[in-house]
Each structure stands twice: as structure tokens, then as C-alpha cells.
Automatic annotation (TrEMBL), chains A, B, C, D:
This is TetR family transcription regulator. GO terms for molecular function: DNA binding. It holds the Pfam family TetR_C_13_2. It comes from the Bacteria. It comes from Halobacillus halophilus (strain ATCC 35676 / DSM 2266 / JCM 20832 / KCTC 3685 / LMG 17431 / NBRC 102448 / NCIMB 2269). Residues 2-62 form the HTH tetR-type domain. Keywords: DNA-binding, Transcription, Transcription regulation.
Length: 188, 188, 188, 188
DNA sequence: GATGAATGAGAGTTCATTCAT
DNA sequence: GATGAATGAACTCTCATTCAT
């Protein structure tokens, strides 16, 4: 993939993360990645195609950081869970972004009226939940492992939503802390 | 408030709930509420003002159904919690809408770049959390009541997000069931 | 129909007559009828809809001048034929337009890839041929009346094509004269 | 001329025949002849130059099939006329194309606003008419030979126009049959 | 209080053409 | 001789908003 295409994707990803898909205009993207109209359409056939490519771009990051970096690591279940929680918070701390979850936002904006977006995003979320369910099995046995995984993911995504609405990252930190308390520090 | 204005608000609220604020066009609203351009601008000075009015409209519903109907009722803390959970699920069951949470969606779409929207929505969420914190105090003592309230709200909002992305209401039902298990059926 | 809409139609009809449908740009139409983009789309939902409306506009003229004015007149068959030929030449003489036949041009441009255009135009041509076939029956009996009607229409449309390519109206006049000779002055 | 250039010309000729000059985009041509932007501009300096080249390409075919193949043959005038009529119908039968006459279409689309196109096409048509006039002289004497030639060409081109608008080749066949009847089977 | 015509900036997209490699 | 990235004007169309009646 050409350098320029990558540049467009990452500039657009950031814009869409911040403003949403619909509110991000092609002109914003062109300005942010310093290209003209023609060049944009040289690389992408439409704004929607760019949007879908961005989801793929998140999917790669996701796979690298979460699936490979956390779940496929050789750490213990406890440590995996801990790393996942840290990773979730750190993303928002490091970017100082109070924009929320990049694909959580897209999930809400696109799921109902664009099936292709929905499925791509759902694939990410479903992977997350399933890998977490495996960790749950190690942590607390087979019983309701999937349900607990869903609860944790919901809690994180909901926590990010609250953080965004309060524009205060400590809200998310607190909620993540509660997950830790509930699933990791139980017996202590 | 004139009947027509109310009609516009409720038609627009539904559209925005489904498609989002940005993706809902004035023309959609005019068509859905059967009015012309002139009449719209007679009642509202701008699309944004309508949007803000819609948040107020949700605030009324909110106050009626959740604050008065649940938290200010004379039921026990357990029953209040139970009713709140039922109310949360029922909204999505009854409307068969897989559109998600009307103001949760707006929170994500608007919080970062429109402070007035953010504050209005935050007011609703904050009320919810604070009233729930009171219930928590009754249920399980002062300790971390606010944190637990936030966790529950996050879990519900996150559950709705997952439900929307899976386009499957059972996801939300399961997550709500887990909250019930965690906070209500503990000792049983 | 509003005056403005009529103005747009007639300005656009002339442009499309001269330059063709595809080569006539919205900006040409806007300039010629002195309107802005918005106003155009207030009256028409698309360029194509305008195009179809223009065919209807020709159909009206057609009905008025040819069907009512010539074929439904109380003249003899000879006189009807004569009037039709005169009308055909006069259109091109009076407008000094060497643009050809307004809907003959469209027939060629649109027939193959836009069925709605094709059918609308075909309706005009078919009416012409059928009314002329009736005149032929009066003139020279039932035998091959339809075939002769088609031949005459083909000769006229083909004559207009030659006229346009030679950019010389005398070509058309000559061909019309030959039709007259063939069908009207036979016995003389 | 390189093989590739010939390929581009024939692919573009077919596209323009079907869709028209304006509606045929460079991208269509590039796709149909499997070349890139650079290669196109290596062989042609512009779309217009390609268009003019295509008329030349038709002129060659024209010369080969009609002028040499029919008019310069050693057949009798009757047989030449007959062969010309057969050739005219066969082109549309064999290609099953209801796209009409390749340069008749161009004549209508281009004659009025591109003098170079007009003259090139006019050259073809004029040759046709003049050669046919010679045949007419043999067939029916000097009297109005040119006029009759024009009428026949007009009838054929008009017949093709009707055929295209009816999307029915039998219309053309019928009209050609009438020419035969009029000029060849007269005395029989 | 209501209508819908008018506005015009800007949306996403197309396209012939140029240019660096 | 060939590639495809880059250009930018122009294209059809959208939209929130204003204005005259």
C-alpha cells in the first residue's frame, strides 16, 4: 500500500474518531492529508469505501495489540486480564482523546443502517468477547464465562461512553478499577 | 406548546434516534411531520435548536418514567433496582428498536464538539447515576455506592451498544440478567 | 405550473436541442434560465427528470401543431399531407436552427440506454406514423399504407439528419419536395 | 500503426457507437482496451483526436465495403443498388446492434458544434450520395439523379433512426424493402 | 400562522489531462 | 514505450436557511 494511501487512512481515521463518519467531510480529509479531490478518488472509490478501510485498519491494530499482544501472549489469565484493562485505559490516556472508542462510536453510528460496517465492527467485538471468555474460563471456571466476558466488554464500552459524556477520563479509570476489583482482586 | 410543535419534536426524535443527528436531514423531518420549510422555521430557529429541544423532550420522559416512576416511588431499594432494569430492557423490547439508547447515541455523537448538547445529556446521565447511587446505599451500604452506580449504568449503556452492534436484543437481556444476579440475587 | 419552471424547461429544451442531453450541463441551464442550483432542484429532482419533462413539453407542442393542427383538421388528405410537409420544413426554417429534430436527436442519444426516454419519444413517433397512415389510406388506398407512412417519416427524419450534417437547409427542402412529388403530384 | 493502437480504436469505436461520444468516458475506453492512462496519451493527444481517428477508421471500412465493394464493383446498376441495400441491412442484423448508424449518430451529436467532425463525416455521406447518384443515372436516367440518391440515403438513415427508437430491426427491413420496391422492382 | 420559492455554500463524485519515474 | 500518481475544474446534487407573499 502506498505511503500516501496510508496517510489518508490515518488522517481520516482520526477525524472520524473525533467527529464521526457523517460529520467528517471529504474536504476535512483532503485538508488533513494534504491531497486534492482527484487523488482521493484515485485511492478510494468513495467515502464509504474509505470508511470500511478504516475499520480494517482498526482491525489490524486490534489484532496486533489486543489479540496477539494480550490474548495470545504467554502470560497467566490474571495477567492477560490485567493487561487488557491497562491497554483499554491507556489508549484513552495516551491519546488524551476524549473521543471515545473508535469503533464503538462507529458501531453506534453505522450498525443500524449499514450492514457491511456493522459486520466488520461486529467481527472485532465478537473476537474480543470470545477471547475474553477463554480468559474467564481460566479465571473462574466454565460457568457463564461468555456472559461474564460480555459484561466486562459492555462495562468498558459503557465506561468509555460515560467518560466521553463527562469529558473526564477518571470516570473510565474508576470503572476499569471496579472490573479489576471484581474479577482480579476478589480473594485478596 | 402547539400540537404541531409536539408532533415535529416526536417525529424528529424518532428519526434522530434511528439515523443520528447529522444524518437526519431537515427534509426527513418535514416529510415525517408533514410540514413545509416555513412552518419548521416558525417553530424552531435552527436544526440545532430542535436537537436541543429533543434532549429536553427526553429529559421529560426521563423524569416521568425513571426519576418519578422508579426512583421517587415508595418501593424498596431492591424493587426500585428491579424496576429500573425492567424499564431499561422494556424500552428496547417494546419499540422493537435496535437503534440503541436515544441519548446514549447523542452523547457519543455530540459530546465532544457541542458543549450545550453534552451538558444537557450529561444532566440526564448524572441524575440517573446519582439516584442509582442512593439505591445502592440502601442495597449494600455507603461503600463505593457511586462507583457501583456508575458501573451499572456503564454496563447498561455498554450492553445497549453491544445489542445494537449485534442487532440482537437477547445480548442486552443477558447483560441485564447479570446485573440482577450481581446486585439483587446475591444472597439467594 | 409556475412561470419559472416553464422558463427553465424552454431554456433547457433549446440547449438540449442544440448540444444534446449529455453535453448540456446543469450550469448551462442555470445560466440560460437565470437561476441558482437550489432553485433548479426545487423544480426538478434531477437532470434526467428535466429531460423527461422536456419530452413531454415536445409532446404537447406535437399534439397541438401536428396532431390537432394537421391530422385532426377538416382538410382533405392531400391538404393534410401538404400541411404536414410544410410544418416539417417550416420548423427548421423559422428557427433557423440547423440543430435537427429535437426528439429525433434525443431518440438517437437516449433510445438504447434509457428505456423511459425511448418509450416517451417512441410514443410521439408512433402517433405521427399512425396518423399519417390514415392519410395514406385516403390518398392511395389501404395497400401498404403503414409502410408508406413509415417511409415518409423516415425520409423526413433522414432528411433532417442530412441537413444537419451538411448544415444546409436546402437539403431538407429538396427531400421534402421529392416526397411531395411522389405522393401528391403523382398524376399531375 | 501498432496493434495496441488499433485495439484502442476499435474498442472505443464500439463504445462510442453504443453510448455516444460525450457519454463514452476515457475510463470506459481504457477498461475496454485494457490500458492505463499513460498509454492512452501515448497514442492519442486527446479524446477528441481519438474521436476523429475513429471517423477515419469508419472511412476506411466505408471505402472498402461500400465504395470499393459495391460502387466500384463490376456489377450492373441494379445489382449495385441491391448490394448496397443488403449491406445496409446486414450491418445491423449481423452485429445485432440496435445502436444505429455509427457515423449517423456522430453526425447528429457533433455536426453543429465541431466543424472538423462534421466535415469528416460529411465527406463519407457525400461520397455515398454521389456514388449512388451515378447508379441512379444508370437506373433511371439523368433526371433528378442526385435528388433520388439523397432521398434513398435519407430513407436509410431515417429508417435506422426509427429502428433504433423502436428497438426493432424489422422496421428497418421494411423500409429498405420499400426502397427496393420503388427503385428496383418497378416494372415487374 | 403558513407556504413554498429562492439562495448559495458546499457535499460527494467524475473526468480529461499532466507529470514524474 | 509504459505506468499510475497527481491535478483541479467541473459535474450533479444536497442542505440549512432566508425571504416574499
Amino acid at each position: 500500500m502506498s505511503e500516501k494511501k496510508r496517510e489518508i487512512i490515518s488522517a481520516a481515521a482520526e477525524l472520524i474518531h473525533t467527529k464521526g463518519y457523517e460529520a467528517t467531510k471529504l474536504s476535512d480529509i483532503m485538508q488533513a492529508s494534504d491531497i486534492g479531490k482527484g487523488q482521493f478518488y484515485h485511492y478510494f472509490s468513495s467515502k464509504r469505501e474509505l470508511g470500511l478501510t478504516i475499520v480494517d485498519y482498526y482491525a489490524e491494530m486490534w489484532d496486533r495489540e489486543l489479540i496477539q499482544g494480550v490474548f495470545h501472549s504467554s502470560f497467566s489469565a490474571e495477567k492477560k486480564m490485567e493487561n487488557m484493562l491497562e491497554w483499554a485505559v491507556n489508549y484513552h490516556v495516551s491519546t488524551q482523546a476524549l473521543s471515545g472508542c473508535p469503533f464503538g462510536n462507529l458501531a453506534i453510528e453505522m450498525s443500524e443502517h449499514d450492514e457491511e460496517f456493522r459486520l466488520k465492527i461486529n467481527n472485532l467485538i465478537d473476537q474480543w468477547i470470545n477471547h475474553l471468555a477463554d480468559v474467564m474460563k481460566d479465571l473462574r471456571g466454565e460457568d457463564q464465562a461468555l456472559q461474564h466476558a460480555r459484561v466486562v466488554v459492555a462495562q468498558i464500552e459503557g465506561g468509555i461512553l460515560l467518560m466521553k459524556n463527562y469529558q473526564d477520563i477518571s470516570i473510565l479509570k474508576d470503572i476499569i478499577a471496579m472490573i479489576r476489583l471484581n474479577y482480579l482482586d476478589k480473594g485478596e
